[in-house]
Design a protein that fits this description.
Number of strands: 22
Number of helices: 22
Shape: elongated
CATH architecture of the largest domain: Alpha-Beta Barrel
Radius of gyration: 37 Å
CATH topology of the largest domain: TIM Barrel
Largest sheet: 8 strands, mixed, barrel
CATH superfamily of the largest domain: EAL domain
Strand content: 15-25%
């Protein structure tokens, strides 16, 4: 190598430097420094005189190579990143910068190549990119990457696309009963099983929800694919020494390239919602009716949010009387929605949706404040106060500090705790965890009453009466209706009343409509009654005048 060139070479201890002769040997290497040898694993004797393209191994179709050819033809600078191979066969990412130079000062006669091993940074960048697409727990796609990849599959061909959404039932029970670490293990096993089905794309779309996409040869193949997925999920899950059986809801849709990914995901989600609502978690295919229901749910959510803003929720109050004296002793606060278009709506029209969307928390928070304020106003000048029953959603016990919330409401309203009873559903009793018992005991320490609503219709279990610090049982109207004609109903009610008296609970019979029913219940020593015989639910002003 001419001395003049050597004098101009920079001192590069880490980057590989090479000079190639353009004039005679067509990019043959005429000089390499020590770093170049260390990076490639070749000695200078093995490198000098060889065309540097041999470092590309069999990867000669890399698009960056064409960029190098074009730059050399123009005698221009170029920088590319290539996949190269060391002497031992291992690959590395090579950031290669080529610059033309001239020894005589005329046309370029040589190229200086600067090689930098960027494998670590390139791999790290790829890992970062992958992490933005993957679910951190299970390693399958996250929902954003899933939608992108479904769109890619739809554009690639004309085949039908099966998209399935899967929801794991009662996941909350596993987390609460076994611990969140066990719940995570279950989710990872589900992801592995779904991946092993061979589906083109597997995704975790939410806490306990997954999605799969699979191109089909024909739309009729959907049922076969779904059955294979169902069977893969069916075996019990072994985690932390426990064997857990799990049920799944499934909804699916078959689309074509004329449908975008977002639409398919939304439609599969609408079908999944119907599956989750079915008694036996039926596998549901998307239908136009699902779309209509989904739009209705969106509209109802928006309308309920507006109803909260415009204060359209209030309460009607139905009297509860002492069956022995006929005196009004209490009232149940029954939620009503004053809908601008459809008029007054009862809770059965919207409570389920309010719980699904979480709006029940805002509705109930405002509601309890309203009832407590009303109780304080009604009882201000009464010698014998009226107790007001307020229905509480199980969701509130899970997502709200109920003792603190109730205490704050009582303090702000000035209502006595004894004037408020919280009506609980029997479904809440099923979760007889230490935490739930502690919440109820703290509520009783405040002085509020705790009542089981519609006793005997859901998960009735006499153990609840022993375990929970209850103050009242409400006998469902189904046991009261036809009481005079049914000996079995009389036996059941008499037993409930006898047990309640022994345990110190009050008993309220709901749905009393006739004097015969009232007389029978009074003779059984039932404490209180509620029903149309004593009065229908009325607004606050009307009830205040009755009380």
């Amino acid at each position: 190598m001419p001395e003049g060139i050597a004098a101009r070479l920079p001192d590069l201890s880490r980057d590989g430097l090479a000079i190639s002769d353009l004039r005679e040997k067509g990019m043959a290497l005429v000089y390499v420094n020590r770093a170049f040898q260390d990076i490639t694993g070749y000695s200078s004797d093995e490198l000098i005189g060889r065309n540097c393209r041999f470092l590309q191994g069999s990867d000669r179709l890399q698009p960056e190579i064409q960029s190098i050819r074009e730059a050399i033809a123009r005698r221009a600078d170029v920088t590319v990143t290539l996949k190269n191979y060391r002497k031992d066969g291992s690959w590395f990412w090579n950031e290669l910068s080529l610059s033309p130079m001239s020894i005589s000062g005329g046309e370029p006669t040589h190229y200086i190549g600067l090689m930098r091993d960027v494998t670590t940074s390139r791999v790290a960048a790829a890992q970062i990119a992958q992490s933005t697409r993957a679910d951190m727990l299970t390693g399958v796609l996250n929902r954003y990457a899933f939608v992108e990849d479904v769109d890619i599959l739809l554009r690639q061909g004309e085949r039908p696309m099966l998209l399935i959404k899967i929801d794991m039932a009662r996941f909350h029970d596993i987390n609460e009963g076994y611990g969140y670490d066990v719940g995570d293990q279950v989710l990872m096993q589900i992801a592995r099983r779904l991946t092993n089905t061979g589906a083109a794309l597997v995704c975790r779309t939410g806490s306990n929800e997954f999605a799969l996409a699979q191109p089909l040869g024909h739309a009729d193949e959907a049922q076969t694919a779904i059955e294979m997925i169902r069977q893969s999920l069916a075996p019990r899950y072994l985690v932390a020494g426990a064997t857990i059986g799990i049920r799944f809801a499934m909804g699916y849709v078959v689309g074509t390239q004329t449908t975008d990914a977002i639409t398919l995901v939304r439609r599969a989600g609408a079908a999944l919602h119907r599956s989750k609502s079915s008694a036996f978690l039926d596998i549901c295919a998307f239908s136009a009716e699902d779309d209509r229901r989904a739009r209705n749910r969106l509209r109802m959510t928006s309308e309920m949010q507006q109803a909260l803003e415009h204060d359209e929720f209030d309460f009607h109050y139905q009297p509860q009387v002492d069956l022995a004296t006929g005196t009004i002793v209490g009232a149940e606060a029954l939620l009503r929605w004053h809908h601008g278009l459809f008029g007054i709506q009862s809770p059965d029209k919207f409570i389920g949706h309010a719980e699904d969307t979480g709006l029940i928390l805002d509705i109930s928070a405002r509601g309890l404040r309203t009832v407590a304020d009303f109780a304080a106003r009604v009882n201000r000048d009464r010698q014998v106060p009226i107790a007001f029953s307020f229905n509480v959603s199980p969701l509130e016990f899970k997502l709200r500090d109920m003792p603190k919330f109730v205490s704050d409401v009582l303090t702000a309203s000035g209502a006595d705790a004894a004037w408020i009873k919280l009506e609980l559903t029997e479904s809440l009793m099923v979760e007889s965890s230490a935490e739930m018992l502690s919440i109820m005991r703290h509520l009783r320490e405040l002085g509020v009453g705790l009542s089981i609503d519609d006793f005997g219709t859901g998960y009735a279990n006499l153990r609840y009466l022993e375990d929970f610090p209850l103050t009242e049982i409400k006998i469902d109207r189904g046991f009261v209706k036809g009481l005079a004609q049914s000996r079995s109903k009389r036996v059941i009610i008499e037993s409930i009343i006898r047990i309640s008296r022994e345990l110190g609970f009050h008993v309220v019979a709901e749905g009393i409509e006739t004097e015969v029913e009232r007389t029978l219940l009074r003779d059984m020593d039932c404490d209180f009654g509620q029903g149309f015989l004593f009065g229908r639910p009325v607004d606050a002003a009307r009830f205040a005048s009755l009380a």
